[in-house]
Design a protein that fits this description.
The protein is 72% helix and 1% strand. With 299 residues, it is mainly α. The chain has a two-stranded antiparallel sheet with strand order 1-2. A hairpin with a 5-residue loop joins strand 1 and strand 2.
Length: 299
């Protein structure tokens, strides 16, 4: 055997269990010599055909080269999607809601939400990857559910998606119309006979504009979705942004009790619990809609 073959065999056998090294080394040397003799090829060409010694050693030892092998990767990906698009939004919404209940300002609540997504999301990815990598290397110590045809998701009816998008468009347009109408028409009449808005007029100097912009963005995105007949990643990204622009300010306005006009509150009693429940409801419904959008695009 030439030094080139010896170097190749050494690179292979040093990566496999000690008890198998001698037998595999003899087998490799014999295979290389027989192939060179049978083909009349140069030794270098034969070694090139046999490939990277690292990959060959992995085949002999049964150790995966990838962090998570193909046998477990589908299950890993499904569970990762479930955690990121279902559990993570719920944890984030809960963190933001706790900040709101602690009377923290909007900036602090948004910062908490972003921090939760980054920190908790990174932890989910890291620990799930570590667990599946260990399972892949010690298969006898853990069992993973085998895929069956029962795991196939139902095929979504495009018509049903179009109806849902149409209903969402109608609802958001109605909300925009009601907000603008009550500002222009001043429909509420106080006990003194004065006409006034239901919502606080001061909102038109600030917070109402991102709410209207977010609702308008949702309408535009839903119209596009009706046209393409499905969710796409760019649409979902826009949907998340528009939902945040609309829902976070609205929940903040309601929770801070800056939603109704002072004239309206002078004649109508609104319980304090209404503000808290409504603010949490806005966040919960918005988070649920975002999760549904992600589930649709991920299949």
């Amino acid at each position: 055997m030439t030094p080139l073959t010896d170097r190749y065999v050494h690179e292979v056998v040093r990566r496999i269990p000690a008890g198998q090294r001698d037998d595999i080394a003899d087998e490799l040397r014999a295979t290389i010599a027989d192939t060179v003799e049978a083909r009349g090829s140069a030794e270098r060409e034969v070694l090139m055909e046999m490939g990277d010694p690292v990959r060959l050693a992995a085949g002999y030892s049964g150790r995966p080269l990838a962090l998570i092998g193909p046998g477990l990767y589908p299950a890993y990906l499904r569970l990762l999607k479930l955690l990121l698009w279902t559990v993570l939004p719920l944890i984030t919404a809960a963190s933001v809601a706790l900040d709101v209940l602690d009377d923290k300002d909007a900036g602090a609540a948004i910062g908490t939400g972003i921090g939760t997504v980054l920190v908790v999301g990174a932890q989910m990815v890291a620990w799930l990857t570590v667990v599946f990598a260990l399972i892949d290397r010690f298969p006898r110590r853990a069992a993973v559910k085998t895929w069956t045809p029962d795991d196939l998701p139902d095929v979504r009816d495009p018509e049903k998606g179009g109806l849902a998008a149409g209903a969402s468009v109608a609802w958001n347009v109605l909300l925009i119309g009601l907000i603008v109408w009550q500002h222009v028409a001043e429909p509420f009449r106080t006990e003194s006979g004065e006409r006034t808005q239901v919502l606080d007029p001061a909102l038109w100097s600030g917070w109402i504009w991102p709410v209207l912009a977010g609702l308008a963005g949702l309408v535009a995105l839903e119209v596009v979705r009706i046209g393409v007949r499905r969710w796409t990643f760019p649409l979902v990204a826009g949907y998340v942004g528009a939902t945040a622009v609309y829902a976070l300010p609205l929940a903040w306005i309601v929770y801070q009790k800056e939603f109704f006009s002072p004239a309206f509150l002078a004649d109508v009693t609104v319980l304090d619990s209404f503000y808290t429940v409504t603010a949490l409801g806005v966040l919960a419904v918005s988070a649920s809609n975002v999760i549904k959008a992600f589930r649709a695009v991920l299949g």
